[in-house]
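Key idea: predict the complex, not the pieces.
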Amino acid sequence: GQQLNQSPQSMFIQEGEDVSMNCTSSSIFNTWLWYKQDPGEGPVLLIALYKAGELTSNGRLTAQFGITRKDSFLNISASIPSDVGIYFCAGLSWGKLQFGAGTQVVVTP
Amino acid sequence: KAGVTQTPRYLIKTRGQQVTLSCSPISGHRSVSWYQQTPGQGLQFLFEYFSETQRNKGNFPGRFSGRQFSNSRSEMNVSTLELGDSALYLCASSPPGADVSLYEQYFGPGTRLTVT
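Result:
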């Protein structure tokens, strides 16, 4: 089963709103990756984080590597309809990626 | 550069049969990982191959096996299929040196396997 706790499980937001989601774990990770998956497709890498405290942006996306190395956050600013999908966090430990259960984002006009 | 490709995209098999799925990594990538994705269990790591050797393995029964060829292409095999094996099987590749630092992993579109 999942070892990363990702929340919220789902979000229903209006276009233009900001979105925040996070992943927490009892384990320390060396790398955090954030992915977006559309229905019927594989996950697409959005942001990669490699240092505790690191803050990285990719367009309207911003992610942070928690200071304790046990958590990470993803923010989407000014959401648009194409932001709909499932967002996954993944932590790298001992050469293996562990995934969160995903946050389903639904954007309404 | 072409992305990770997987074939076939969809497959329907009967319980008890076996199946082989194929994955071609991004050109230059030598590490290939396989995952099983189901609504109930999410993304579960199956195994990772690097330079034709299995480097990491998840907690799946021996019915799940894989191999990697000298051109880095990889295959995954599931024998004696069970209904619970119905899932999206995803392959991902990583660039050289990614295991040391600046780790990244890129996924293919997946193979949707349905076991009836």
